[in-house]
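User: I'm new to structure prediction. If I give you an amino acid sequence, what do you actually give back? Let's try with this one:
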Amino acid sequence: MKLFRPAVGSVPLSLAVSAWIILALNPVFWSKTGIAFGEHRTAMIAFSIGICALLTALCVSVSVKYLTKPLFILAIAGAAAASWFMTRFGVIIDADMVANAAQTTPAEAGHLMTPGFFRHMLLFAALPALAIAFVRIRHRSFSAKVKWNLAVIMPLLLLALAMAYWQYPAIASTMRNNRIVIKTLNPVLPAISVVKYAIREGRQMDIVAQPLDPDARPGALLSHAEKPVVTIIVAGETARAQDFSLGGYRRKTNPELEKRDVVYFRNTTSCGTATEVSIPCMFSLLGRADYSREAGLAQENLLDVLSHAGVDVAWWENNTGDKSVASRVALRNFSAENDPRYCVNSECRDQVLVDALGPWLDSVKGNATLVLHQLGSHGPAYYQRYSEEERLFRPDCRTEEFASCTSEEIVNAYDNTIVATDHMLAQIIDMLAARSDRLAASLIYMSDHGESLGEKGLYLHGMPYLFAPGEQTHVPFVMWVSESYSQIFGVTSACLAAEADADVSQDNLFHTVLGLMNVEAAHYRPELDVTADCRKQVMISSFVPDA
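Assistant: Good question. You get back a string of structure tokens that encode the predicted 3D arrangement of the chain. For your 547 residues, that looks like this:
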């Protein structure tokens, strides 16, 4: 018996698809539209009618024979996925977010592919897609189809223009002051972001990094140091400054660092809101104002300059990749090693870095800089980032499904990740201090970006910087120097503390590390080196003869 398949015209199917996308897959867009227009109801109605007309015209215009079903199914699937992440986490699907998704690891992706996500995709994508695949489409001849489609598209475009003309001043001013609204329109803006990402990736393929300060050399203090000088840079992940008790947070999330002689820089801002942007930016000379992915790839970075000066440089990876920062230095990937003592599915607690550090420190023979790229507070599986001993705040969210947890449980789980980072940094400090007789050591900890924990309905990170809340851009920055380091370079905790309340950013990292290592380089800027004034004092006392 032949299965009956209903037939439908391409235009009616286009109208049905556009209605589904408009009504079912754009809750965030309509919510933000309502908030943006507020009491301007007439302008909001005109704007809404215009957007619906444009989306419908777009659906009709792509209803081409042989392409109609694939394009509609792809549009619905993409819009459904984008809708889930925008609704649940408040993210915006821009080109940087597409890049994050493209470079995510299987373990990281697994945390986002929750039962709730699959239920959502089944209801909002799979079932409509099956319906589209099942029906037969009646197509007219090419000439008739062009005429018929234009007969539908042109009135829709005229309607959109009429709505814009009718309420242009109100619509223009509202959109100018609320640009985030249009960035949530499904599936148009996510599709544009995918295209932008693809174009950007194509341009980056042939970029070759140009040398930066190849004549960099050890400074006078480094040259005369009687023991190896070592700087450990801990590149943090998703730690926000608001939850560091060193900065005044009400909870004791830094119980161990508070007992060490560290300096905490309270007012530090990030270069971006996602690892893909912040990590390469913070190691770049460019700074946030001038940084772009292309510009960053076209120029060597901090690690290269240190290498030019004869410093032994290495990068230890325990996250989703070095983002091309460590392309020209020694790299060890702990996720790839997948040590069963610390790792599950190639996702490792940061203790794996600490346990490998002791043997490395004992093997150091010359000046060295080591970057530890930690997994830190990476969400949404916060509960997997800390041990039972570090589980100070309970009850904590024990799932990736935030909808199954209370706000308090989510915050508790996140704060436990900060406790784990606190323990990690304290261990490293103790290891460096114990070797003060043979190493002159310093430590820098700086998180790549922050995290939203439900404030303003936002979770996780990755908001476009223009719209990002302080929770995603205000990051912790910690420094520590050993006694032997202070004796050589004059940089002490007491001296650094004088700058603890200054406004600093990830732009300072490049110059501060060169300063800590006393590397002379043409592009070094002392005004961006938080250690410069302290080191200047010892240089004066060392090289100016007594009267």
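You can read the tokens as a compact description of the fold. Here is one thing that stands out. The chain has a mean pLDDT of 93.
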